[in-house]
Structures are given as C-alpha cells and as structure tokens.
C-alpha cells in the first residue's frame, strides 16, 4: 500500500508541475510549490486541518496537549523529529531510540533550516505536529547527496518533549557539573593533585593541577596555551597540542568568556582544569537538522552557520585541561 501511495503521489506531483507550466510561464517557484503542497494535502486528507501561515508553512496537529507548558515559559526546547522530502526519501529520524533529545533555542536564529525554527513555535510541551516547508524555508538551492535535491519541499514531524528557560538550563548544568566533580573525585588531591576545586561565583569550577612560576596574565596580555576540551561525558571537542599552541589577547573578544576568566586565574607554567557552563561558552550554538557532519561542513563553508557549531552542540558545559605556556 505504501508503494502505491508513493507512486500515486509522484504522478500527482509531476502532473501538478506540468499543469502549472502549461497554465502560466510566469508562475514563480513559490506558486508552483503551493500547488504541489495543496495537491499533497488533498491526497493525504489533510487539506481541512492544515493551515498555511504568512511565511508559507503548512501546519497541522498530530498529537495535541492543550494543558501542556507553553513557550511563554521558556524557549529552550528538547525535541525529536522526522524529516522527509515530499515525494522523495526520508532524510533523517531522531527519536527515543537515539537516547537524548536534540536541544535547541527557538526564535534565536540558531536552528537551520529556518522553517523548522518557525515551525517549532507552534508546539506546546507534549505535542507533535506535522509541517510542510516550502523550499525557501527549508534548504533552498542547497543539495546534499541524493537525500536532499535542491529546491526540495520538506515534510517535518516535530515532537516537543520539554520546555525550559535559560535559567532552568543553567540550574541543570550546575547540577551536572557538581556530579562531574564528585564522579571524577576532583576533591581527592591524592588521586587528582594539586589543589581542591574552586567553585567560582559565575558557576565555573577551577582546579590547579600543577603550579606555575611565571607571571599572571592581565588585561591586554597575549597568552599562549595548549588545551584539550571535552563534554562532561568525556567526548573530546577540540585540542590545541604542544606542536600548535593557541594564542589570544586577554580582553580581545577572541575566545569564549569562560576560557578567558579561567586563564586570568592561572600563572605562566601552570596546568589547570576549568569546567565552564554553556552560558560562558557557546550557549545555543547553532543546530543543523539533520546534524550530519558533511552538511555542517558545507554550511560553514557557505557561512550559513559559524564554524564552532560543527563541534559544539547547544547548551553543553565544557571541560578544559589547559597549560599556560607563555604570558606577554
């Protein structure tokens, strides 16, 4: 049955495209896509429940939860999704089988495609909605392998599992950081010398691992460091090894604020551990759906998303092990 429906839809969509071309040579792509979407909705008996908004997104509820928390209480969303090309393949499914939800900040320009960002605004906690995204709100002229042809109309099924404010996110992160300190036995100076961890007022944790003997950096100092950064689960995010130390100017807005704050506490020659909550790191970062590395690379090259977003997921505390090798 599914194959029959797919074949029927393919014939229907092709017929609509050709009829549009015959009716008017001046029809825009948006006009043609609107006709294709209308035909699809009719074929799926969704025409009476799917509403088009002013941007061109078509939305319809699948699972409603009128008593669910609304996004007036926060816009950090934990979601699952399924996305497909209309008349084509399933691009990606992210659901409970994948473990953790995807966490995004809605309405901050931090989700790609932009149509998914706008679509998420419809949902209350506990709801699932279906959406049809015209190509200009999906991937536009971008194409990826055979999965996403250029100017694809996208079907998205989005589930909103949890809504939090950024203050609630910070509270959750501080609890996770405290658990990390306990689990890693960072207070045990025999197993983990040198000093006890210091819990800073801004939520960071600073622990000296070995002492230095040189100057402390100050505003406008140029410092050179080597480091390894990780998530709390141990996944390595980035490295600057001894063969290629990283240099930056204190106060030059060249690094995340948490890294700069931590380095200011260090002495030249010192090795230290810094644990940084996300609000002092990359906050909401930028979430690409689907989060395929090749798509991130393409979008970074096209300057659609920042380079760090390919490494740093939204709202992730970071652990830095740092050597401060030079202060000028």
Automatic annotation (TrEMBL):
Q: Which PANTHER family match?
A: 39 KDA FK506-BINDING NUCLEAR PROTEIN (PTHR43811:SF19), FKBP-TYPE PEPTIDYL-PROLYL CIS-TRANS ISOMERASE FKPA (PTHR43811)
- This protein's species is Marinoscillum furvescens DSM 4134
Task: Report the enzyme's class at the first EC level.
Answer: isomerase
This protein's source sits in the domain of life called Bacteria
Q: What is this protein called?
A: peptidylprolyl isomerase
Q: Which InterPro entries match?
A: PPIase_dom_sf (IPR046357), PPIase_FKBP_dom (IPR001179)
The regions listed as transmembrane in this protein's record are none
Q: Which Pfam families match?
A: FKBP_C
User: Which transformation does this protein catalyse, written as a reaction?
Assistant: [protein]-peptidylproline (omega=180) = [protein]-peptidylproline (omega=0)
Q: Which family does it belong to?
A: Belongs to the FKBP-type PPIase family.
Q: Which residues form the signal peptide?
A: none
Which PROSITE patterns does the record cross-reference, listed alphabetically?
Answer: FKBP_PPIASE (PS50059)
A single GO molecular function term of this UniProt record: peptidyl-prolyl cis-trans isomerase activity
Keywords per UniProt: Isomerase, Rotamase
